[in-house]
Write a structure and sequence with these properties.
Oligomer: heterodimer
CATH topology of chain A: Alpha-Beta Plaits
Strand content of chain A: 15-25%
Radius of gyration of chain B: 17 Å
Largest sheet of chain B: 7 strands, mixed
CATH class of chain B: Alpha Beta
CATH architecture of chain A: 2-Layer Sandwich
Number of domains of chain B: 1
Structural class of chain B: alpha/beta
Strand order of the largest sheet of chain B: 3-2-4-5-9-8-10
Structural class of chain A: alpha+beta
CATH superfamily of chain B: Thiamin diphosphate (ThDP)-binding fold, Pyr/PP domains
Distance between the termini of chain B: 41 Å
Number of strands of chain A: 4
Shape of chain A: globular
Radius of gyration of chain A: 13 Å
Shape of chain B: globular
CATH class of chain A: Alpha Beta
Strand content of chain B: 15-25%
Distance between the termini of chain A: 16 Å
Chain lengths: 91, 245
């Protein structure tokens, strides 16, 4: 199951909690400041569109942890039937 | 791709004023998610405290009535008795509920008021700059206990939730934390149950949530959640304190 996250860089305060919980280590701190003066988190696979090499599994752990509700999670919609246990929201 | 996680509807678009890594905003989101899932948004009334969460009415898209410092349980009692069909919750920090508001809270629990209290415990007075609170743990350095809290001089931390567990009117009391995704999801379940207790008209329910305060603890957000897990839970063990629902 592949996924993608979107980080709202203006909401993010760069606390880094999402980085510590990501099992695939696909989040990092950006090098550019946002308008509030924080270095926001950045999704490493932001511009990767080839699902074969994407590592994000849409586990949602980053979004569950994010204190500023800055992360939206998207999951690949093919093979809907395989959606079973890896969603922590339903676990 | 299908969106599987986004902002709950009961949370406004306003950006949080909380510090980076603060637990308040996680708890706000969980409360909003529970309100959405129970479908009670149009009949929920929140009572925010004095403290860091004083501006909670800027974030929740439900009716809010601001209470004087510590008096949230008394205000909630009045609201619930006048409007028994509404779901009334208080949102209080440890300085609010466990210091100045101890009397109101204990009596509301003892009377078995049909309200839900959310007790955010970060072991310091957050808004005023990190002074020692009743819930500060022994040895913890704050601006008013620079050498660490000494139980002989300053007393031991107050176990408010355990005290409320003894009260006859309390139905559901649980202590959780927001330090890790696993505990965050557990907290959401606890909040849902606490609201359900009120919907079933059973009595008083409270969820105590251990929450990191990186700014006043002088730690990074990552160290702060570790401190909750390793140190704070030794004095405030995570457990269901009372459940007679």
């Amino acid at each position: 199951m592949k996924g993608r996250i979107e980080i709202d860089r203006e909401r993010c305060k760069g606390c880094g909690l999402c980085i510590t919980v990501c099992p695939k280590k696909q989040i990092e701190i950006s090098e550019d400041l946002n308008t509030k003066g924080y270095y926001p988190a950045r999704f490493k696979e932001e511009h990767v569109r080839d699902l074969k090499i994407v590592k994000c599994t849409a586990c949602s752990l980053c979004a569950v942890t994010c204190p500023d509700v800055a992360i939206d999670v998207y999951r690949e919609s093919k093979d809907e039937s395989e959606e079973t246990t890896d969603d922590p929201k339903e676990g | 791709m299908k969106r599987i996680f986004t902002r709950p509807e009961s949370l406004k678009e306003t950006q949080f004023h909380y510090c980076p890594g603060c637990g308040h905003s996680i708890i706000h989101r969980l409360v909003a998610e529970v309100i959405d899932e129970l479908g009670i948004r149009d009949r929920t009334i929140g009572v925010p405290p004095a403290g860091c969460a004083v501006l909670a009415y800027n974030y929740f898209d439900v009716d809010m009535v601001e209470a004087p410092h510590g008096r949230a349980a008394a205000v909630a009692t009045g609201l619930k008795r006048i409007l028994p069909d509404r779901v009334v919750f208080t949102y209080q920090g440890d300085g609010d509920i466990a210091a100045i508001g101890t009397a109101e809270t204990i009596h509301a629990a003892n009377r078995g008021e049909r309200v839900t209290s959310i007790f955010v415990n970060n072991a310091v007075y957050g808004m005023t700059g990190g002074q020692m609170a009743p819930t500060t743990i022994p040895g913890q350095v704050t601006t008013t206990s620079p050498g660490g809290r000494v139980p002989l001089r300053d007393g031991n931390p107050l176990d408010l939730s355990e005290m409320l567990g003894i009260a006859q009117g309390s139905v559901y009391i649980e202590r959780t934390s927001v330090s890790r995704p696993k505990f965050i999801l557990k907290t959401k379940k606890a909040l849902k149950k606490a609201f359900q207790v009120q919907l079933d008209d059973l009595g008083f329910s409270l969820v105590e949530i251990l929450s990191p305060c990186p700014t006043n603890w002088k730690m990074s957000p990552v160290d702060a959640v570790k401190w909750v897990d390793e140190t704070m839970t030794q004095y405030f063990p995570l457990k269901v304190i009372k459940d007679v629902a």
